[in-house]
Design a protein that fits this description.
By secondary structure, this protein is α+β, with helices and mostly antiparallel strands. It has helices spanning 2-29, 32-35, 84-91, 109-116, 183-189; strands at 119-132, 138-147, 153-162, 168-170, 193-207, 210-219, 222-230, 233-239, 242-245. The protein has one domain (2-39, 49-245). The chain has a nine-stranded antiparallel beta sheet with strand order 4-3-2-1-5-6-7-8-9, with helices on both faces.
Length: 246
């Protein structure tokens, strides 16, 4: 039992390290003015994606096959930002042809599946919802998967106001609203117009017994950032033309 708990904790740490790379930047760096141009969207659920917006039940455990057996090849220093196709060629020269046409120059999960194989896990691990109230003020609702005291995954709710500089201001909420909030509880915080939704998905790919894993960040349903670990290398893309092979 102890070894199983240790393994579960290692999985959470592995995903958590990747997820936390950008969490504060997204919460803190998006100014109110930038949200005005965003189209109003609603939360969604596709395929086997588990989302806190569509279910009030306890989330499934984080992927148990998240690879942590191979370390990044830090001896391979990045040569600077490049396009996704060039970064893939640098990381995995034999897989470059699997990218197919790159005429649309967009980050896409389907394209990742061509590289790393079909996804065996596609699970939401964090969702940040931006709301604008009638008086012009903003609120940010953050739902993330955390490990509870019983080593089981659970949704955790945090709530923020936003100051004049676009920085988050924590707002206290009742303790019984924090863990695995119900749909009714979430609805009470979803006031005003939703102007942006940021989601982070944990992905596990399988291709001929080769497992690859990482995270994808979506903003209003569009893939904006990816971090994928495979065969000892790490591909990070902040956009199609700002990628690194690490």
């Amino acid at each position: 039992m102890a070894s199983r708990r240790s393994y579960s904790r290692a999985i959470l740490i592995g995903i958590g390290l990747i997820v936390l790379v950008g969490v504060f930047n997204f919460i803190r760096s998006l100014p109110p003015s930038s949200t005005a141009s965003r189209e109003h969207t609603q939360p969604y659920s596709n395929g086997n994606i588990q989302s806190p917006s569509t279910s009030a039940t306890t989330p499934a455990p984080l992927p148990k096959d998240f690879p942590n057996s191979s370390e990044e090849s830090f001896s391979h220093l990045p040569t600077g930002f490049s396009t996704m196709s060039d970064a893939v060629k640098q990381c995995w020269p034999k897989r470059a042809d699997a990218l197919g046409s790159l005429a649309d120059q967009a980050l896409d999960i389907n394209r990742l599946e061509h590289l790393f194989g079909p996804t065996s896990t596609r699970e939401s691990v964090e969702e940040i919802e931006h709301y604008r109230l009638a008086d012009g003020s903003e609120r940010r609702l953050v739902l993330s998967i955390e490990e509870g005291e019983d080593n089981k995954s659970q949704w955790q709710l945090r709530f923020f106001g936003v100051d004049a500089e676009g920085l988050p201001i924590p707002i206290s909420i009742p303790e019984n609203h924090v863990k695995n909030p119900s749909s009714a509880i979430l609805a009470s915080y979803r006031e005003g117009e939703r102007v942006r939704t940021i989601r982070r998905l944990a992905l596990v790919f399988n291709l001929n017994q080769l497992r690859s894993a990482g995270t994808v960040t979506e903003i209003d349903g569009r893939v904006e950032e990816i971090q994928i670990r495979s065969d000892g290398r790490l591909l990070h893309c902040a956009s199609f033309d700002r990628c690194e092979c690490l």
